[in-house]
Amino acid sequence: MIETSPGQITQVWFAAQGPKLAVYHHGVPKPRTLTEQELAAFASASYSVACPVRRGYLASTFTAPGSMASDAPITAEVVRQLGFETFVSFGFSGGGPRALADAALTPACLGAATFGTVAPTNREFDALAVMPEEDRGFVAGLRAEGMNLLPMFEGWAESNPAFQVGTEGWLADEISMVTDWGFEASSVSKPTVLFTGDADANVSPECSRWLHIQIVGSILEVLPGIDHDNVFTPETITKALSLLG
User: Fold this and answer.
1) According to the model, what pLDDT value does residue 181 have?
2) CA dist 111 → 11, 98, 107, 231, 240 (Å)
3) How far apart are the C-alpha atoms of 31 and 44, rounded to whole Å?
4) Which DSSP symbol is given to 131?
5) Where are the domains of the chain?
């Protein structure tokens, strides 16, 4: 546990396995430790790994919903308290924008890699247009009702053990994905690699393609036949680290 600001406790899984540091931002709504195979991919390049659990999940304090950008100072404090001066940031799905926020806003961040990341829904890219039609009303409800939807999310969590890890954090994550990120993707100037699967039915590959256009110098890796659950693997971790240098 790390006190990342007064009154804010952040649960962090940490694997000390090298002099360099990678931060992994989990997806929505499933904070998790990395597998032995995933950790080994980082270790082979001399990287320790920190996995911060976002606000409202598990033992991490929930304060209020925030933007993607609001998580960057928390990450920076985790890195500082773990004793590292620099890091690379990795993010899966809804964690992808957090990795990009680190690269945009945190001087200590050397680069970012995203895996099946979402794109902002309130910019010139129409992320709603690439969502299933039944999801668009859900997005409108999130924007209109915000945290007032907590009882509905608590009801869903009761029936799905995978979601019983912090309903406030889950709802806050959903809100952060459909409201202003707090930074522009085009402001990312650090090395960036975007992985997406062309068979991803959860997050359209068009999200990564749009981000690739916005982030000058970024590398886009479209993985043939790969779905959402298989875009973050030991193989893509190894490739991301090699591309980030």
Assistant:
1) 94
2) 23, 12, 10, 19, 10
3) 24
4) S
5) 2-244
* φ, ψ of residue 234 in degrees (nearest 5): -55, -35
pLDDT tens digits for 46-91? 999 999 999 999 999 998 888 999 999 999 999 999 999 999 999 9
Beta bridge partners, 220, equal 194
- Which CATH number is 2-244 given? 3.40.50.1820
d(C-alpha 172, C-alpha 127), whole Å: 19
- Determine if the pTM surpasses 0.90: yes
The per-residue DSSP string of 155-202 comes to HHHHT-GGGTT-HHHHHHHHHHHHS--SS-GGG--S-EEEEEETT-SS
Q: What percent of the chain has pLDDT over 70?
A: 94
